[in-house]
Amino acid sequence: MAVLSPMAIAALGLLAERPMHPYEMYQLLLERAEDRVLKVRPGTLYHTVDRLARDGLVRQLHTEREGNRPERTTFEITEPGRRELSRRVLEMLSAPAQEYPEFALAISEAHNLSATQVISCLRTRMQALRDEDEYVVTRLAQQATPNVPRLYWLNIDYDRAVRTAELAWLERIVDEIDSGALPWRDSPEVRAHQAKVNRPDATPDVGPGEDDDGVPRRDLRHRPTAAR
Q1: Residue 223, phi then psi, degrees to nearest 5
Q2: How many other C-beta atoms lie within 10 A of the C-beta of residue 32?
Q3: What is the helix (H) or strand (E) element at residue 21, kind and residue range?
Q4: Is 98 helix (H, G, I), strand (E, B) or coil?
Q5: Contact at 8 Å (CB) between 48 and 8?
Q6: Which of 29, 105, 157, 158 would give a disulfide with 34, using CB separation of 3.0 to 4.6 Å?
Q7: Mean pLDDT within 62-83
Q8: What are phi and psi of 216, to 5 degrees?
Q9: Where are the alpha helices (DSSP H) in the chain?
Q10: Burial environment of residue 215 by CB neighbours within 10 A (0 to 12, 13 to 18, 19 or more)
Q11: Longest distance between any two alpha carbons in the chain, whole Å
Q12: pLDDT tens-digit series, residues 110-163
């Protein structure tokens, strides 16, 4: 059996609550703003439910038609489906996944830009994050229901905590670049470093049994990024 996709996990999670037909599942995902954590497309959802049925993780319960509307087939989760859902969620909670975010790559290459450009871009990002947080808080206030326990909103808590942490980091980095505490490419320190590493006869100081990055040759699995 293939690894469950994010949409498959969401579908199984909904059917673990109660039997539903795919269109109801789609509407509920949008109502709960799950489209903020995964791509919600009707066609993808229908295809996913069909695949889960073929794998025996869900099964058809009944089919009905209302007036001239297309038939709607209601599905329910099976015991193997509950076990697979639990197994995959346990795995995802315990093992960090390498998701290759674009921002981390952009930060690693930010030295190619001027300090003014980087500061401007990061300040724009900071405002976008603040706007996003305000939107989430407003939406939570609009949809707040005292009968819904907090454990069903932990993803919102996590999302806000990550955003808050990123904002704090961005504010610190922008202040350091702006004040000169973080020397940028036009600073004497960085220019001196570039002049040193660009010398034709420049060779890094490494110890015995180390490679050119100063990492012992016996273990290169966690090689640090080379200094630029």
Answers
A1: -65, 125
A2: 16
A3: none
A4: coil
A5: yes
A6: 29
A7: 89
A8: -55, 135
A9: 6-17, 22-31, 42-54, 79-94, 102-108, 115-143, 154-179, 188-197
A10: middle
A11: 83
A12: 999 999 999 999 999 999 999 999 988 887 776 666 667 778 888 888 999 999
Q: Which amino acid is at 83?
A: R
As to burial, measured by CB atoms within 10 angstroms (0-12 exposed, 13-18 middle, 19+ buried), residue 15 is: buried
> Which residues are CB-contacts of 81 (< 8 A; sequence separation ≥ 6)?
12, 15, 16, 52, 56, 57, 58
Tell me whether residue 181 is exposed, middle or buried, using C-beta atoms within 10 angstroms of its C-beta: 0 to 12, 13 to 18, 19 or more. Answer: exposed
Tokens found for residue 186: 């036009």
Q: Which two tokens stand for residue 26?
A: 């789609």
Structure tokens at 16: 């673990």
In whole angstroms, how far apart are CA 123 and each of 93, 101, 218? Answer: 32, 19, 43
**Tokens standing for 28?**
């509920």
Alpha-carbon separation of residue 57 from 10, 44, 111, 190 (angstroms): 13, 17, 49, 58
- Phi and psi angles of residue 30, each rounded to the nearest 5 degrees, phi first: -70, -40
Please give the Cα distance from 10 to 16 (Å, whole number). Answer: 10
pTM of the model: 0.76
